[in-house]
Each structure stands twice: as C-alpha cells, then as structure tokens.
C-alpha cells in the first residue's frame, strides 16, 4: 500500500507489539491502579489447576501455529489499553455492546479470540463460574512468553470482567505504527508508564509477524516524500520490498525479528541498533536524535536479564491498569458476551427453536 493518505494510515492502526504488539499501549484516562487487590495465588483453593489448563491449550495450538504466542501477548496489550484489563476486547457486537474488535487498530488484525474461548471452555469445565476472562488473558500472555523462551513472572490474579466495551477509545488510544517517540512517550506517561516501560514492552516485537500495510509507507513513500524512510537499513529495505511489493494488497506478513522470529529474546534491540526495526514506532526508540530511550535500547541489547526483568515489571504494572475487583464487574460464562446478553440470547434461541419444532 504505497502513497497512503493519513486516512489510510488510520485504517492500519493495528499494531502487533506486536505484539504486541505494537506494541503498545494506552488506556484512555485509566491510570495504573496501584491498590488493585490482585494476588498470584488468588485461585489456589478455587481453581488450583488453572495455570496448567491454560498452558496445555496454548501449547497445543502453538505446535501448528507458533505465531499464536505473540498474538496472545498482543491481545492482552489491546485489552489493557482500553478501559483497563477487563476483557472488553473480547466482547462481540450486540444490541448493547459496540465491539472493540471493529475498531481500526483491531479489525482484521486481532488473533487468538478462538484460543481464548477454548481456554475458557476448559477452565469452566474444571472450575465453573470462577476464573475471569481478564485473568485468562493475563495468564495467556505470561504462558506464551514462557513457551517462546521469554520472561516468566508471577501473574497477579483476581480481575473481574467488564460489562461493556469502548470502540471509540480503542480507535483513539491504541498507538499507531507511525507514531513518533514523543507521541508514544506521552501515551505511556498518561498511564503512569515510564520510558523504560515503553522500551521494555516494545520488546514484545522480538517475535511475531506484521502485515505489510502497517509499515509499507516506510518502504516507498515515507511521510509523503516519495522516498523510503532514511532510518531503514538499505539491505533490510530491499528484503522488505520483496515481501511487500509496491501497490500490493498489504496482507503479506513480515517477521518482526528477521533473525529469530518465533523466539522471545533481546534481538529486537540489536535490530534497532542496525536500523532493522520493522515499524516506524519501533525504530523511533533508537533513531530519534538525543532520545533518552537510546541508552535503554543499548542496555537491553547488551543484557538479556536487564530486558527480561524490565519486561516482567512492565507487564505486571500494565496488567494492573484499571482492573475491576471484588464486587465490580462479573465472571463471564462466555468471554464474548456479558452474562446478561448471553442469557438473553440463549432464551431467544430456545424460543426460536420451539417455534420451529411446533410448525
């Protein structure tokens, strides 16, 4: 998709911080919730096998679709960026819900909704009406990271599911792949997330894939100049042009990390150092003159443990944004519908079935 207008860019918001990623990440007006009553052992007595149940489903899926691991990390990001980590991104369109799945950053972009539903079914069979979809998203991100040889952290649990979605916030609050560093930092700062959090969470782009539509302007018409992005490595530019031809559909996939595309490691940062960041928003972290993020990129490139530690801290911090606990929200029986809508639809379907059988 060459020669994009700004409107076209808006239609390609979906970032794979990548997942997500784009990775990454804001919540409109919902600050980090430092007093959320979450606990890694929340389900110790009520659903002690929840972690192993989630892991088994994801492990089986990843055998045939290794890309799914990055997609599930990104799905957690896209949930927490809008209304907090309340599983609002999972809600389908109904008479009362305007789904976030049809927001520009998510449409034809989100992956893993079916996997979350498979996990929810398995969890419900073991522990009915106990584990929230929001917690399943948080656990899925952690387990996906581990399966990709990445960081491991204790996931604070006890979230409840929200009762609505917010498509307009998804449209305005999720960062775009062409955001500048100042725009990314401002979005993070609103949520109490630091530049170190920004660089660490962006590191989720060390695995997974992105559609060409999210970065093709950099290859042919950067900032409407008719030329490629000068911050792109010229050899890498030619490789990407083969994957994403000028005037193509934009649906081809490119690896975020051309070296180890399915492994969660620190190569994302060494790629930035040699101008091989896939998205503009990736390369901005290192190529913005005088930026304080350059030092952080260099640190993470040199020290995997420093990156992993910062990623774990940032994921826990992000996972606490705007959470619902206690008597707020609900435990959804089906992740795609609030319980009220699910009961209403089941009643309607039963009524329609009875009508058919009586004819």
From TrEMBL:
Family indicated by similarity: Belongs to the peroxidase family. Classical plant (class III) peroxidase subfamily.
Class of enzymatic activity (EC top level): oxidoreductase
GO biological process: hydrogen peroxide catabolic process; response to oxidative stress
Signal sequence coordinates: 1-36
Protein's job: Removal of H(2)O(2), oxidation of toxic reductants, biosynthesis and degradation of lignin, suberization, auxin catabolism, response to environmental stresses such as wounding, pathogen attack and oxidative stress. These functions might be dependent on each isozyme/isoform in each plant tissue.
Record-marked site positions (Transition state stabilizer): 74
Reaction catalysed by this enzyme: 2 a phenolic donor + H2O2 = 2 a phenolic radical donor + 2 H2O
Keywords: Calcium, Disulfide bond, Glycoprotein, Heme, Hydrogen peroxide, Iron, Metal-binding, Oxidoreductase, Peroxidase, Secreted, Signal
Protein species of origin: Pisum sativum (Garden pea)
Positions of substrate binding: 175
Cystine pairs: 47-127, 80-85, 133-335, 212-244
Intracellular or extracellular location(s): Secreted
Binding sites annotated in the UniProt record for Ca(2+) 2: 206, 257, 260, 265
GO cellular component: extracellular region
Primary location group: secreted
Cofactor note: Binds 1 heme b (iron(II)-protoporphyrin IX) group per subunit. Binds 2 calcium ions per subunit.
Cofactor names: heme b; Ca(2+)
CDD domains in alphabetical order: secretory_peroxidase
Protein name, entry field: Peroxidase
One Pfam entry name: peroxidase
Residue numbers annotated as active site: 78
InterPro entries: Haem_peroxidase (IPR002016), Haem_peroxidase_sf (IPR010255), Peroxidase_pln (IPR000823), Peroxidases_heam-ligand_BS (IPR019793), Secretory_peroxidase (IPR033905)
UniProt binding sites for heme b: 205
Molecular-function GO term, any one: metal ion binding
Chain residues that bind Ca(2+) 1: 79, 82, 84, 86, 88, 100
Annotated ranges, domain Plant heme peroxidase family profile: 37-339
Entry EC number(s): 1.11.1.7
């Amino acid at each position: 998709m060459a020669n994009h207008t700004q409107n076209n860019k808006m239609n390609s918001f979906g970032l794979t911080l990548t997942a997500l990623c784009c990775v990454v990440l804001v919540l409109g007006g919902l600050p980090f919730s430092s007093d959320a009553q979450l606990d890694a052992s929340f389900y110790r007595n009520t659903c002690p096998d929840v972690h192993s149940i989630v892991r088994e489903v994801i492990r089986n899926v990843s055998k045939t679709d290794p890309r799914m691991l990055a997609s599930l990390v990104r799905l957690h990001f896209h949930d927490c960026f809008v209304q907090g980590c309340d599983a609002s991104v999972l809600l389908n369109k109904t008479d009362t819900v305007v789904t976030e799945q049809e927001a520009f950053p998510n449409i034809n972009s989100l992956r893993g909704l079916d996997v979350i539903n498979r996990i929810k079914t398995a969890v419900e069979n073991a522990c009915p009406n106990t584990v929230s979809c929001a917690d399943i998203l948080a656990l899925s991100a952690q387990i996906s990271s581990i399966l990709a040889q990445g960081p491991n952290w204790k996931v604070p649990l006890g979230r409840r599911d929200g009762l609505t979605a917010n498509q307009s916030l998804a449209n305005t609050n999720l960062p775009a792949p062409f955001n500048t560093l100042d725009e990314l930092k401002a979005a993070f700062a609103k949520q109490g997330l630091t530049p170190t959090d920004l660089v660490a969470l962006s590191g989720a782009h060390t695995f997974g894939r992105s559609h060409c539509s999210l970065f093709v302007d950099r290859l042919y018409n950067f900032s409407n100049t008719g030329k490629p992005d000068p911050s792109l490595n010229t050899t890498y530019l030619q490789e990407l042009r083969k994957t994403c031809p000028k005037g193509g559909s934009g649906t081809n996939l490119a690896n975020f990390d051309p070296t180890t595309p399915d492994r969660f490691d620190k190569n994302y940062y060494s790629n930035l150092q040699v101008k091989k960041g896939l998205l503009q928003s990736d390369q901005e972290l290192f190529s913005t003159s005088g930026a304080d993020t350059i030092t952080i990129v260099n640190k993470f490139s040199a020290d995997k443990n420093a990156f992993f530690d910062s990623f774990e801290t940032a994921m826990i911090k992000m996972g606490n944004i705007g959470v619902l606990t206690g008597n707020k929200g609900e435990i959804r029986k089906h992740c795609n519908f609030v319980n009220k809508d699910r009961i209403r639809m089941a009643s309607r379907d039963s009524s329609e079935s009875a009508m058919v059988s009586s004819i």
